[in-house]
């Protein structure tokens, strides 16, 4: 692994104040120059797709580009899309291994999301597909534009917002997906692009 890409002194997690959840945030997982470089590399280097989902009987383009990488057996279904992973790239593997060392968790796949501008978004959801298991750990890296990441509790109106900085790492674990939804809202202000990498573990028994 290249030593110079990641800073080490400021790599500490803070716990976010969400009840019945385990959410940790590291603002400087990757330093800002390296994050900008990695954004450029991944924007041209990953096999981005414009997927559509069926909504009320019509095919609707999802408001972002996506790419799915991982171990060959990490098959994933999402809103009716069946995703077969592409083989790990060196960059994705390096980030994965770095997160694994920090979190002591293993991941076998990553969903990459590219929010091209403020119009791209992700609606309210929980990452609660059966193949993720009941208490999934999801590690999410932000590169590029800062975007607000919103949490909304399922059983009352509680919300929590955190602006995710370029180079940051957000880890959602424990019962987070069970009690909370999350999403990235659209913005009318002109925004630059943001690439998000969400590392997951697809359980073999569920596929
Ligand atoms: O872009 C993000 O930070 C969130 C992505 C997300 O929630 C997902 O891929 O499930
Ligand atoms: Fe999610």
UniProtKB/TrEMBL annotation:
UniProt key word Oxidoreductase = yes
Q: Which domain of life is it from?
A: Bacteria
Any single GO molecular-function term of the entry would be:
dioxygenase activity
| Signal sequence segment | none
Which Gene3D superfamilies does the protein's record reference?
Alpha-ketoglutarate-dependent dioxygenase AlkB-like
One Pfam match, given by its short name, reads: 2OG-FeII_Oxy_2
The protein in question is named: Alpha-ketoglutarate-dependent dioxygenase AlkB
**Which organism's genome codes for this protein?**
Aliiglaciecola litoralis
| Residues covered by the Fe2OG dioxygenase domain | 106-203
């Amino acid at each position: 692994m290249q030593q110079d890409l990641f800073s080490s002194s400021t790599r500490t997690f803070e716990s976010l104040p969400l009840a019945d959840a385990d959410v940790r945030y590291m603002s400087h997982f990757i330093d800002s120059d390296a994050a900008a470089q990695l954004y450029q590399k991944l924007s041209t280097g990953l096999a981005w797709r414009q997927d559509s989902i069926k909504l009320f009987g019509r095919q609707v383009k999802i408001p972002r580009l996506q790419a799915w990488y991982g171990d060959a057996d990490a098959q994933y279904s999402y809103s009716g899309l069946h995703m077969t992973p592409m083989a790990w790239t060196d960059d994705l593997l390096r980030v994965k291994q770095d997160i694994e060392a920090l979190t002591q968790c293993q991941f076998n796949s990553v969903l990459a999301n590219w929010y091209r501008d403020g119009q791209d978004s992700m609606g309210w959801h929980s990452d609660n597909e059966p193949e993720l298991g009941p208490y999934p750990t999801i590690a999410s890296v932000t590169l590029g534009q800062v975007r607000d990441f919103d949490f909304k509790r399922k059983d009352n109106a509680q919300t929590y917002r955190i602006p995710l900085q370029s180079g940051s790492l957000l880890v959602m674990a424990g019962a987070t997906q069970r009690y909370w939804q999350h999403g990235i809202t659209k913005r009318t202000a002109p925004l630059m692009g943001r690439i998000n990498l969400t590392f997951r573990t697809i359980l073999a028994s569920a596929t």
